[in-house]
Amino acid sequence: MESIGVIFAILLAILASGAIVRMLPISIPLPLIQIGLGGLIAGVFSEGIELDPHVFFLLFIPPLLFLDGWRMPNDVLKKQRMNIFQLAFGLVIITMIGLGYIINLLIPSLPLPVAFALAAILSPTDPVAVAGIARKLALPERVMSILEGEALFNDATGLVAFRMAVLVAVTGTFSIYNAAGTFLWVALIGIGTGVAVTWLLSYVRRKFTAKYGEELGSEVLLSLLTPFAAYAAAEYIDASGVLAAVAAGITMSRLELGGAISPMTRMRRTATWDTIQFTLNGAIFVLLGEQLPDIFTGALDVMANLEQNSAWWLLLYAVVIFLVLIVLRFSWVFISVNITSLVKHKRFIRFDDHNLRDIVLVSVGGVRGTITLAGVLTLPLLLPSGEDFPGRDLAIFLAASVIIISLITASVCLPLLLRSAEDHEHLQSPLAQQKRLAIAAARQSGEKHLTELLQQLASTNTALSVDYFAGVKQRIWEEFEHTFDSYRDPENVQHLQYEVERKMRLAIIDTARQAIYLLAREQKISDEVARDMVTLLDLDEIRFN
């Protein structure tokens, strides 16, 4: 029963963390608050949760990677593909090898394969964490695009490299040829499996709904099961379930552009996935805080064998590892942007203050987070011989410490690097251009259909004048365009008129909703009728908010 209590405490901690981060007068990364709340849980309960690495990996990794792939803008992948590829693949390999050897030199008692595994799992970055830190800042579009795209793929490559290193640590054998062949198999077949499973599920769903219609609950549940189906299918044929989950997310993103999903399904599915993402991310960090005291004790035991049983040595190792990560990342980004410039422009990049600052932003903005933590917690408890996995608690503690240090560093450094007002324009200008392009395309596409529709309506509604239909058409288009305006221009009279109408609509919606609730409380209408009517009013409010 106590384990059930711990689970509820973790969920309450996740809920409380969201409230705390909004109430604090200073900006503190949400993961740090969640780790602290997890530590409080560890102090309250005498027994914590015993994590099964395989179950933990299955529950957390597929949905998070699927969601990353699903929500990753395809134009970002195309525009920044060279930089993303070099960071997501080249930097992971450099980090795994370079940092792995340095960790082994720092801590000789940590076997080299375990050091490689720790270095590999420290290579993935977390765009959710850095976005949370920079939510009140204006992060340049190019920098954020690279961080998001890199994180999508280095999550997968880092986890694949991590699992291969763990396999070497468990079996004690390694062959570069077998490793290369295995990597190609698990990567290519894993990606193919993710694409195939998602496409097949989408095809069956489309045929079924075309004949029998949509059911909202089933639609949402299908999207929740898709990453697990792709992951399980890939793992069954000894391919990479991690890459399958990522490929499934990207495939879902492409299929969704076909517009075959109803608006209500999209809204409910989005709300469900937002909740799941918040809960899973939060659960990982709260679990870390809950497990941290035991992990710290185990790490000290490992350090005692080196006659360095001071906690300061643990902190020193974590700081050194973090600094090495920053140096490797800065060096590789420097090389990467030059390679990209040589390929595209046949010259090296000019390093002015703006370009140098962007390189520093990408280096510092590579915050470690959810995937690193979820991956390192899946280190095996035992070797096949029955012995304890060497240095498991030390590796987990070092990974957790690097995550915390990277979060604090980004929280301090990013605001200092983003003081310039020009960043906001650099961020917003391309987005505004894309909105204008979309509005123009929508108007061009809809103009012909709307004209034909109005002609049909005018022929069947002869009591209404031609001027009336022309006025309605003009007002609908103006309302459509103003809906997407993210600013308020006091010189634009049409926009001011739209704002007046919008506020009046919202006032009517609010008063109507209160009147419906009052009738339901007085039992003059049923609760079911009240809920249905309020749902429609809520959709209108979302539309005009």
What is the CATH C-level name of the largest domain?
A: Mainly Alpha
Second rung of CATH, namely the architecture of the largest domain: Up-down Bundle
The oligomeric state of the chains shown is single chain
The biggest sheet, with number of strands, parallel, antiparallel or mixed sense and barrel status, is: none
Average pLDDT reading: 80
Q: What would you report as the Rg, rounded to the nearest angstrom?
A: 27 Å
Task: Give me the secondary-structure category.
Answer: mainly alpha
Task: Pick out the low-confidence regions.
Answer: 421-429
Order of helices and strands: HHHHHHHHHHHHHHHHHHHH
The gross shape turns out to be globular
Structurally, the number of domains stands at 2
CATH topology of the largest domain: Na+/H+ antiporter like fold
DSSP helical segment count: 20
The span between the termini is 45 Å
Helix content: over 70%
Beta-strand percentage range: under 5%
Number of strands: 0
Subcellular location: Cell inner membrane; Cell membrane
Organism: Oceanisphaera pacifica
Family: Belongs to the monovalent cation:proton antiporter 1 (CPA1) transporter (TC 2.A.36) family.
Membrane topology: Multi-pass membrane protein
What structural keywords apply?
Na+/H+ antiporter like fold, globular, 545 residues, single chain, 2 domains
